[in-house]
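Subject: Interface between my chains keeps coming out wrong

I've been trying for a while to get a sensible model of this assembly. When I model each chain on its own everything looks fine, but I need the whole thing in one frame so I can look at the contacts. Pasting all components below, labels as-is. Any help appreciated, I'm running out of ideas.
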Amino acid sequence: MSLVTLIPLFPLIGFLINGIGFRHVPKSLVGIIGSAAALASFACALSLFIGFSGQPEVTHLFDWITVGKLNISMSFQIDQLSLLMLLIITGVGSLIHIYSVGYMHHDEGFGKFFAFLNLFLFFMLLLVLGSNFVVMFIGWEGVGLCSYLLIGFWNKNSNYGNAARKAFIMNRIGDLGFLLGIFLIINHFGSVEFADVFGKIAEGDYESGDKTLLYITLLLFVGAMGKSAQIPLYTWLPDAMAGPTPVSALIHAATMVTAGIYMIIRANIMYSLSPETLEIVGWVGAATAVLAASIGLFQNDIKKVLAYSTVSQLGYMFMGLGVMAYSSSFFHVMTHAFFKALLFLGAGSVIHAMSDEQDIRFMGGLRKKLPVTFITFLIATIAISGIPPFAGFFSKDEILAHVYEHNKLMWVVALAGSVMTSFYMFRLLFLTFFGEFRGTHEQEHHLHESPITMTLPLMLLAVLSAIGGFFNLPHIFNGHASLAEFMSPLFAHTHSTAHEADASTEIMLMVISVAAALIAAAFAYFLYIIKKSVPAADGQESGLKKVIYNKYYVDELYDKIFVTPITVLSNFFHSVIEFLVIDLIVEGIGKGVKILSGEARLLQNGTTGYYIFAMVISIAVILAWSLRAFLF
Amino acid sequence: MPILSFLIFLPVLASILVAVLPDSYKSQFRWIALIVTGLQLAGCIWVFTNFDRQSSDIQFLEQQDWITLSLGSLGTVSIDYLIGLDGVSMPMALLTGLVMFIGSISSFEIKQKEKAYFSLYLLLSGSVMGCFLALDFFLFYLFFEFMLLPMYFLIGLWGGPRREYASLKFFIYTLFGSIFILIVMIGLYFSVIDPYETAIHAGFIDVKSQMTPEIFGQIQELIKELKIAPEHMVHTFDMRLMTDSGNFLPQSLLSYVSGSTLFSVPARYLAFIFLMIGFAIKLPAVPVHTWLPDAHVEAPTPVSVVLAGILLKIGGYGFIRIAYSIFPDGAENFAVWIAAFGVLSIIYGAYNALAMNDLKKMIAYSSVSHMGFVMLGIASLTSEGINAALYQMFSHGILSSMLFLLVGVLYDRVHDRRIDSYRGLAVKMPVFTAFVAIAFFASLGLPAFSGFIGEFFSLMGAFNSSFLPKIFAVLGAFGIVLGAGYFLWALQKMFFGKFWVREHEELLTDLNFREKIMLTPLAILAFVFGILPHLLFDITSPTISEFMKLWIK
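Reply #2:
Try treating it as a single job with all components included. I did that and got this:
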């Protein structure tokens, strides 16, 4: 069996052992099996990466479905893009598995948790390994299922159940677009294999702006919106924080939510020929980036802040895609996986220490009690805020530079988002780790640094967040842009790529964005360290702040314009159409027959005299009819 | 004994046996039913494994002259005992064996009037099987009508509080539909000539085996030119012959060339519509579906399982086997309408399911929605769509059986099916919850489960069909989103949150051994057919490719 097949196989085996043997596998073994499955996949991915020839390799497993003229095979594709995704998924995934051993230790569903986590890895690996759109779609739906199961993991709380359902259904709406996109691809290209479809586009003379490609790319993008939480399908992600924190780190920050970006990079040849779609992608990304960042400004739940930050950062990635800076977007996917996973795991460590308290208004001064968590969280905060030389600086600035070349207004929006990012992240950092402790005495007494299984992943991710930027060090810093170089074969057939800004512009943009981030950080320092202000209690906000705190009432709006009409309509169908129209007609016919037959029955009443009377009348009528010519 | 006759008549004979055995054997009846349906299932599996997957022909053919009446100058009536299997009927026959077997395990719950119950159940089993195997229209119609009788009593005697209303509604609805079918059947009979028998009567050949393509062509030519004496003409109910336009008498009502009209509608179109109405009631399609929720709610669990698992499929099967095969011109002409009703069923069924508080009713409406995909797939007139329609029927047979069994689990314990009577059942009944979750996710079309294949390809067929506007596929896909809505809503309401039951908390126990025995194989099958779709597509594809030639001019 080849290494490629082993990669998804290990987590699948892990899932089967922990899932079927739930409650029977000893607790000490569960974590080891789960983590070993992830690590084994990582080892395979790494050895594939090292031995990679530079040429895409398709491993055909079996013909899956042959129906009509269409043949869909189960096959895996190894190329630059899937390799990098594999490394991120299995690498970060392994760390999060190890972290979960400590974090979930006291949970009664420990075995179930690891089973679901392994199942998620399996589907996520299927998603990125699939060599055609259908296998990708299976992975796509599969991760949605795991996301549902893990968000609702603590399903005794019905709010968590609601969040899980919302996530699944919103994703399904996106999947609808993806599905129709696949149908259109089949309709137009007669195949779903990446190699066939993209090969045909590369050979064929497709004009830029081709109508079919426009529709396909738009439909696929709808799928990406759902999975990667872009406007208008973003509201599920903040709610998804109901799941255990390692889940938020793995699924809702590092891997699953980047599937949409993966998809667009995969299909970059189509997108590059659809400038209209790209324009939409870019602006949706920009709008999401700034909207989510603004909501993040005033959130008080440590995980909610990070969730909106994720939505916002995903917006940056789409912005990058919109200006065809594909490798820059991917660079950001990678660095974001490092620092956002780190932030979530750090938050988890804090929550763990605080006995499940998530509200930053009741934290403070934790840096003394949780030194490792503090240092690593600090590194991640600097990284996400775009302050050099940490990872986020390089990847975000690459996107910003490309955006600047494409559209100055979009750049301003992006810059505004990045200022807000810096502010809310430092606000979070200061409120959590600095100042005086604001929680209860019990909590204070209980404060402790997390065990090594939790801090080790934090430290490793901190290293990656610190140096991750050097994987793609730009030329102006005497780097080789190694990542972009490595990924370039993916864009070989893409007719046009993003413009490169010249060195002086690039440096100018860097200075501006770093200065902006520093000013925002300083402002946060002033507010929360010097002035020691603490956000107001719930319900005390006013004006614009209240609107933002309530997430612009988007959830309420969706409720009004989507959920309520559907409920009303379904009740209308059920109680009016079903009973008052259809069944009334059906029973009306029945009653009609009954009445008629009741009348007809009277004709046969058994009285001889009546029959004779009827006979005489009838004969008279018949006679009259036959003799009508004679009579009249 | 020929295997297919065995499949039909073993249960029928067993039914008679149960009926004549004295009541002192009461406790044995369920075992007889179990063993007989088990043998029936084993027979189906044997046929399934021995089915030639390369061939599009009728296999395991059995033919006996049954009724032959000479009517002098009106020709000869010939009704054959003609049964056989092709790629369309094979999945349905397998499903029948499977669901009937599971249903007989579930019937162990029946604690009153066992003799009548098991006798009727076995009779039903035989007649449903006959329906899928018959290739003679008359024989098909016979089985089709015969099914109504046991079904009527099974709902009407062992059902819930409103059982009489429900069983009567079911009966009259179906009977109403079957009258349309009967009319077309008679019309076809007068229009179609059996060239084989006619050749024998006219003295061209002595036995059927002497028939050569030349003589066949010659006969058809003579039929076309009306050169065969009426007394030599042999009319037939053989459905295989009805698909060949050359076998129609040129001046007859339903021939392709006569151009007859009834009420200023071409007679062939009208006949097609009649057949579609008859089978749409069975499917059921909106707006002739209202018997279904009532029948399901009142029927006892095993009868619901059989009803949803198999009986509905006769509708879809009838579309393909009869309406589409014999009237391809009508199918093409009305493709948009049929697809529209399919989409209407998908959406309308899903909306109604959303409004339900009765779990069993919700599942009944979800059946309406899922069978809409069958209609949409068939209407697409694409190979993918029709294969998928068959797949969807098979998959729905497995999943709806599972769903109704699961409702039965709750109902047997506390006699309450209201969704809002339960909360947090996952705590008390974890295994039950796991099965419900599997059944729900499989039903809402999650990949890796059988439902996905059927829905994916029927939508794809609709999308790629040259007969249908693309909006149908889009609307149908929207039905999948609604499906996720009602299934997850019910799952969350009933199983998650803090544990609470309206009453009889003490009666809620997790699945017992018998229930696990029924549910586990169904769950496994839903999964197996989700990841190995070629198990069925290999069977259906050759027949469907041959079938598709009806639309190539």
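Reply #3:
Confirming on my end. Chain B touches chain A through 52 residues (CB under 8 Å).
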